[in-house]
Amino acid sequence: MMEMITIGVLDLQGGVREHLHLLSQISNVRALSVKKKEDFNNLDGLILPGGESTTISKLLNIFELKDIIINLNKEEIPIWGTCAGMILLAKEIAGTSTSHLNLMDIKVKRNAYGNQLASFKSKKVIPKISKKELPLVFIRAPYITNKNKKVKTLLKLDGKIVAAEQDNLLATAFHPELTTDLRVHKYFVNKVKAD
């Protein structure tokens, strides 16, 4: 029988329920919302959801979770950041000298496509994830403006990097959890299983 894996979704703010809902549809996955220190014990993978990156970062400090997530990365536990989660992972944020978790060798531009009104949908093939088009939902999305050579680009949209991977880290500027499509979540689950 396939072994169960446990994936936590950081539950401080943002699209937590949506990630949990999609993960619950994938076999051999136990999905948990995590917000207290003890919730992070025995995780096989972690998702940092979309939301407001500055707010989530402040809450990470208040609940003293920052070092716990940094240590998960040191243990090479797969971590996936969607939208605000991508900003949290980045080592550099354009226009500011501060960063949040400082884990992934990328520079991101916040709200790169403009305000809420500039939210949009698209469909693209991400070859490493699926040979068929995936629905992409962008809401006040960031994109990657610069990256280290260790970072692999998974998808560019209009010349801008909107999905990338570095070792155990995955970052997407779009929100797969706001669709009914499981393929990006399955890709992350397989990354966790391969770990």
CATH superfamily: Class I glutamine amidotransferase (GATase) domain
Tell me, briefly, the overall form.
globular
**Which topology does CATH recognise?**
Rossmann fold
* Percentage of residues in strands: 25-35%
Q: Helix/strand-derived class?
A: alpha/beta
Look at the structure and give the mean pLDDT: 92
Biggest sheet overview = 7 strands, mixed
Major sheet strand order: 2-1-3-4-12-11-10
- Strand/helix succession: EHEEHHEHEEEEEEEEH
CATH domain class? Alpha Beta
Q: What's the domain count? A: 1
CATH architecture name: 3-Layer(aba) Sandwich
C-alpha termini separation: 18 Å
| Count of discrete alpha- or pi-helical segments spanning 4 or more residues | 5
Radius of gyration: 15 Å
Per DSSP E runs of 2 or more residues, the count of β-strands stands at 12
Helix content: 10-25%
Query: Runs with pLDDT <50, length 5+?
Result: none
Walk me through what this model shows.
This protein has 195 residues and is α/β, with parallel strands linked by helices. It has a single domain, classed as Rossmann fold (3-Layer(aba) Sandwich). The protein has 5 helices and 12 strands. It has helices spanning 16-23, 53-62, 66-74, 84-89, 183-194; strands spanning 5-10, 29-34, 45-48, 79-82, 90-93, 104-109, 120-124, 134-138, 143-147, 152-157, 160-166, 169-172. The strands form 3 sheets. The protein has a 7-stranded mixed sheet. A 3-stranded mixed sheet has the order 5-6-9. Strand 1 (5-10), helix 1 and strand 2 (29-34) form a beta-alpha-beta unit. The longest helix has 12 residues, at 183-194. The protein is globular. The two termini are 18 Å apart. The model has no long low-confidence stretch (mean pLDDT 92).
